[in-house]
């Protein structure tokens, strides 16, 4: 433990953001990192608890008090090694994880959790800046070949772990660039994409082969993977969007959030409009935008709409507004349901809760508004409030209502795997084995829509399961 009295002496002080008026003019990251002396004092706040609840909160089981101590001691290199022992890509989670570890931190009982996520990010950013993060190729090859389908965080973590123990790994990705939702869902202002590119370079040097613009089930058959590889890992995400089933939803101004976000991410990557938007440009410039869905995807649509110069942005959520502050006695150390205001919300949006959408109004084939009604929730049951109908003027309606599970057509139909009751690929979290021999599944394709940190955990654990299945034993961590 760095300093016994640190938590008594120093207040929690987190990273700050650039001014919203300035940051909405660009798509770059805008978090202002801690100066090093401040960060070390923040690390000194860690109490090295007898039961470190932060560990339980963290899906990858980061050894948080250990690296807090090392940062306080300015032993950055060992802090990096420790961090990498549980997480392949801390620069991703250090930027976009909702940080369940901080919710679980003992100091969160008094709303002063250690700034774990900022410390994580600083350790790994420093590692890259100092040139400490280099390829870790295996000492010897096993002669086994593994195909990983999907290059999101689950597929990348799985591929890196497997390559490092000597398997020959090929990652198949249907998109033109690697990264899954990290690349084309999450906007650059939350996470810039050069972070993915440099990991890909590292992984190639470790022996991973990437095949982009290659959809398994279309460009190559699943049968050919079976024939040419000893194991196949399905890490294709949960791509099936929840649809809006109301009259008028077929109008061209009602669009999926992922189409909107992908186009902007491609423009940011330097693609021209033909490549970024082959089926026509979808932009919010000068439009009255309504975003349906109150989660991360919806929030990313808000931030992107404001950057594109929308006239107004409204975000709707069907669930009631959660409390500003949780009841710690009931929720800690678990993830609490409470009002979350993202940096995108701070940039300008009107948020509304407990709203049910009823009909998209249109004129001459164009969207003109969204007809809604307020609802009441009692014991999990929703009831419309009579007389509360209202219409929001709109030119563009973005659907950010989540994903119902993995796409079945193509890959999964050809693989012939069984599904669980929720429609995800059935596999447990010990063997990660599907109903088909030597076919494994992890990430959102197995667990349903989730978080990057869960995808990394599953990718790592699935790698161990594959290694064990191929070699009889595995030294990879779970
Ligand atoms: C807009 C948005 C914002 C989000 N923001 C956050 C956030 O801030 N923090 C957070 O923790 N989580 C966030 N999430 C959730 C997070 O991105 C996902 O949980 C995570 O990316 C899942 O990882 P994955 O590897 O399982 O799947 P994905 O990231 O979905 O990757 C799957 C990949 O498989 C590819 N693929 C699918 N089928 C095939 C095939 N047949 N052949 C070849 N390739 C195929 C896809 O093209 C894709 O690249 C967000 C999600 C969205 C949509
Ligand atoms: S729970 Fe908080 S204070 Fe305790 S060890 Fe973890 S980070 Fe440190």
UniProtKB/TrEMBL annotation:
Q: Which GO terms describe its molecular function?
A: iron-sulfur cluster binding; oxidoreductase activity, acting on the CH-NH2 group of donors, NAD or NADP as acceptor
Q: Which UniProt keywords apply?
A: Amino-acid biosynthesis, Glutamate biosynthesis, Oxidoreductase
Q: Where is the 4Fe-4S ferredoxin-type domain?
A: 37-68
Which superkingdom is the protein from?
Bacteria
| Pfam families with a match to the protein in the record | Fer4_20 (PF14691), Pyr_redox_2 (PF07992)
* GO BP terms: glutamate biosynthetic process
Q: In which pathway does it act?
A: Amino-acid biosynthesis
Record flagged with keyword Amino-acid biosynthesis? yes
Gene3D superfamilies cross-referenced by the UniProt entry: Alpha-helical ferredoxin, FAD/NAD(P)-binding domain
Asked if the keyword Amino-acid biosynthesis belongs to this entry, the reply reads yes
**Name by which UniProt lists this protein:** Glutamate synthase subunit beta
């Amino acid at each position: 433990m760095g300093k016994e009295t640190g938590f008594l002496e120093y207040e929690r002080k987190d990273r700050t953001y650039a001014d919203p008026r300035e940051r909405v003019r660009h798509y770059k990251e805008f978090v202002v990192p801690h100066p090093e002396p401040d960060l070390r004092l923040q690390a000194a706040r860690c109490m090295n608890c007898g039961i470190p609840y932060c560990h339980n909160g963290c899906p990858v089981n980061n050894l948080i008090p250990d690296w807090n101590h090392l940062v306080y001691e300015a032993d950055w290199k060992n802090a990096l090694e420790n961090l990498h022992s549980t997480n392949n890509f801390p620069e991703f989670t250090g930027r976009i994880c909702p940080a369940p570890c901080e919710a679980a931190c003992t100091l969160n009982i008094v709303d002063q959790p250690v700034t774990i996520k900022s410390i994580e990010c600083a350790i790994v950013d420093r590692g890259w800046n100092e040139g400490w993060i280099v390829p870790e190729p295996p000492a010897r090859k096993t002669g086994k070949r593994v195909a990983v389908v999907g290059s999101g965080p689950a597929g990348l973590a799985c591929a890196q772990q497997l390559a490092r123990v000597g398997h020959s790994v090929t990652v198949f990705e249907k998109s033109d660039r690697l990264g899954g939702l990290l690349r084309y869902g999450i906007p650059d202002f939350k996470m810039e994409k050069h972070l993915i590119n440099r990991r890909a370079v590292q992984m190639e040097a470790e022996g991973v082969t990437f095949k982009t613009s290659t959809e398994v089930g279309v460009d190559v058959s699943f049968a050919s993977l079976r024939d040419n590889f000893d194991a196949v890992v399905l890490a294709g995400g949960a791509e099936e969007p929840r649809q809006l089933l109301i009259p008028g939803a077929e109008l061209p101004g009602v669009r999926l959030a992922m189409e909107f976000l992908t186009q902007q991410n491609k423009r940011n990557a330097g693609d021209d409009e033909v490549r970024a938007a082959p089926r026509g440009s979808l932009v919010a410039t000068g439009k009255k935008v309504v975003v349906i869905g109150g989660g991360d995807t919806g929030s990313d649509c808000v931030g992107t709409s404001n950057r594109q110069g929308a006239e107004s942005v409204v975000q709707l959520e069907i669930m009631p507004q959660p409390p500003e502050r949780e009841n710690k006695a009931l929720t800690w150390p678990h993830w609490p349901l409470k009002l979350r205001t993202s940096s995108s919300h701070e940039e300008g949006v009107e948020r509304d809760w407990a709203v049910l959408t009823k009909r998209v109004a249109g004129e001459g084939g164009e969207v003109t508004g969204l007809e809604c009604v307020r609802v009441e929730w009692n014991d999990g049951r929703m009831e419309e409030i009579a007389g509360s109908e209202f219409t929001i003027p709109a030119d563009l309606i973005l659907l950010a209502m989540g994903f119902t599970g993995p796409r079945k057509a193509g890959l999964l139909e050809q693989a012939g795997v069984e599904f669980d009751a929720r429609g995800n690929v059935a596999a447990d979290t010990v063997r990660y084995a599907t109903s088909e021999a030597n076919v494994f599944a992890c990430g959102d394709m197995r667990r349903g829509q989730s978080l990057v940190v869960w995808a990394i955990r599953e990718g790592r654990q699935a790698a161990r399961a594959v290694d064990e299945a191929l070699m009889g034993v595995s030294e990879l961590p779970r």
